[in-house]
Amino acid sequence: MKRVAAAFAAALLCASGAVAVSEPGPNQAVIDSADMPAKLSAFGIFRAGTSEPVDALLPYTLHTPLFSDYAEKHRLIWVPAGQQARVAADGHIDFPVGSLIVKSFGWPEQNGGRPVETRLLLHRASGWTALPYIWDADGKDATLAIAGRRVPVSFKSPDGAAHSIRYAVPNKNQCKECHSKAGTIVPIGPKAANIDFGTALSRPDFARFFVKVPRTTAPMPRWDDPASGSLEQRARAYLDVNCAHCHNPRGSASNSGLFLRWTDPIGVNYGIGKRPTAAGRGSGGMEFAIKPGDPDHSFLIYRLESLEAGIAMPELSRSTVHKEGAALLRQWIAEMPKDGH
């Protein structure tokens, strides 16, 4: 993905530091239609025959991203001409019909740094539609994988360990499991507290995308940057991004009673001294999701560090354990007073 990153930078910045937006935008008619094109190139998101995005889309990053097998990700937003996205009172971003959210996944050691997968979220008149595309071997286009697929991938984690996995590209229905709010598909990554536009804020056309810059008085920290927030804040940011899309009162795990949003109060419903809602393998025989002062007997950690079906959490999007993320949560729990939090 280093080459992809370089391509992003070259496409977005001109010599003076301002952004050059000279290419046409994506194919709005394809975005708006009910079609599911067999090839990603039909959308006009990337320059013909490459994985380099056209200038017209707006790049962004997240303070704390979802862990996906150590993949590097590149994210883009498109809002149709004459429309703007708005930030709601609760911090989520309302994208108008005709909008597009793009996320590409890759590893420096794989495919010469080119992306392996690109996922689209299309806001159509019927609602949000999720489509996964797997890049062809030559990197010139990507093919729709409506039924999902396992892709052999090799990479190294930050500790230098080598991994060879069968990376899971979700099928269209699996997308709903994470992107579900009260049974409806919605975006989950871009929200005011977590989105970061970086140098894209200097783009002369930025105001075309948003009514105002999505900002919050309490932005989420970067989970791996101690300078960005306290240990507790960084642990909570990690849980929000990796768990709260399901673990919230309107998510697919609402019946668990475990709610892990950035804004949720810390207490029993946040897992502190919370017993499992049902006896089973997922708890590993432990009494509490989070046992203050004792990460080894907190089944939240047990599930994060497992790869076994029926135990591992999150259930989708990973074939490896995020050692660094688990270490952060272990430290947070270990430093909790044992008589409460």
Write a concise synopsis of the structure shown.
The protein has 341 residues and is of the alpha+beta class.
Set down the secondary structure blueprint.
Layout: H1 2-12, H2 28-32, E1 58-62, E2 72-78, E3 86-87, E4 93-94, E5 100-106, E6 117-124, E7 127-135, E8 142-144, E9 149-156, E10 162-169, H3 172-178, E11 180-181, E12 184-185, E13 195-196, H4 206-209, H5 231-243, H6 299-304, H7 323-334
Antiparallel strand pairs: 1-2, 1-13, 2-5, 3-4, 5-6, 6-7, 7-8, 9-10, 11-12
Helix pairs in contact: 5-7
Any overview of this molecule?
- It contains seven helices and 13 strands.
- The protein has 341 residues and is α+β, with helices and mostly antiparallel strands.
- The protein has two domains: 2-209, no CATH class; 227-334, no CATH class.
- A seven-stranded antiparallel beta sheet has the order 8-7-6-5-2-1-13, sandwiched between helices. A two-stranded antiparallel sheet has the order 3-4. A two-stranded antiparallel ribbon has the order 9-10.
- A hairpin with a 5-residue loop joins strand 9 and strand 10.
- The longest helix has 13 residues, at 231-243.
- Mean pLDDT is 88; it is low at 1-20.
